[in-house]
Design a protein that fits this description.
- It is a single chain.
- By secondary structure, this protein is an alpha+beta fold.
- It has a single domain, classed as Irregular (High-Potential Iron-Sulfur Protein, Chain A), CATH 4.10.490.
- The chain is 31% helix and 14% strand.
- It has 2 helices and 3 strands.
- It has helices spanning 6-30, 40-44; strands spanning 33-34, 72-75, 78-84.
- The protein has a 3-stranded mixed β-sheet, covered by helices on one side.
- A hairpin with a 2-residue loop joins strand 2 (72-75) and strand 3 (78-84).
- The radius of gyration is 16 Å and the shape is elongated.
- The termini are far apart.
- It comes from Glaciecola punicea ACAM 611.
- One of its GO terms (biological process) is aerobic electron transport chain.
- Residues 29-96 form the High potential iron-sulfur proteins family profile domain.
- Pfam families: HIPIP (PF01355).
- InterPro entries: High_potential_FeS_prot, HIPIP_sf, TAT_signal, TAT_signal_bac_arc.
C-alpha cells in the first residue's frame, strides 16, 4: 500500500468536496417526481408522507436537499424523487 502524502490527501479531499457539491446540485435539478409510499425503496425504508415520530421529519433530515420551507424536496436516499417535508423514513438522521 502506497503512503498518502499531504499533497495527494489535499487533492483527494478537494475532489471529493467538489463531487459532493455537484452531486447536491444534480439532486435538486433532477428531482421532480413525488415519492410514493408504494415505491419498493420507500416500502423498504418505511417512508410515509406524515411522520408518526414527533420531531423527526424529512424537513430536518440530513439527506434532504433544496430550499427550507418547501413542501416537497429532493432526498439523497431516493434519487430523482421529492419527499414530503413532513414525511419520515427509517433512514432519518438529524442535520448536524
Amino acid at each position: 500500500m502506497k503512503p498518502v502524502n499531504r499533497r495527494n490527501f489535499l487533492k483527494l479531499t478537494g475532489s471529493g468536496l467538489i463531487g459532493l457539491t455537484l452531486g447536491g446540485v444534480a439532486l435538486r435539478v433532477n428531482a421532480q417526481e413525488k415519492l410514493s409510499p408504494d415505491d419498493a425503496t420507500a416500502k423498504a425504508l418505511q417512508y410515509v408522507h406524515e411522520s408518526p415520530v414527533e420531531g423527526k421529519y424529512c424537513d430536518n433530515c440530513m439527506y434532504v436537499q433544496g430550499e427550507d420551507g418547501a413542501e416537497w424536496r429532493p432526498c439523497a436516499i431516493f434519487p430523482g424523487k421529492v419527499v414530503a417535508a413532513k414525511g419520515y423514513c427509517s433512514a432519518w438522521l438529524t442535520k448536524g
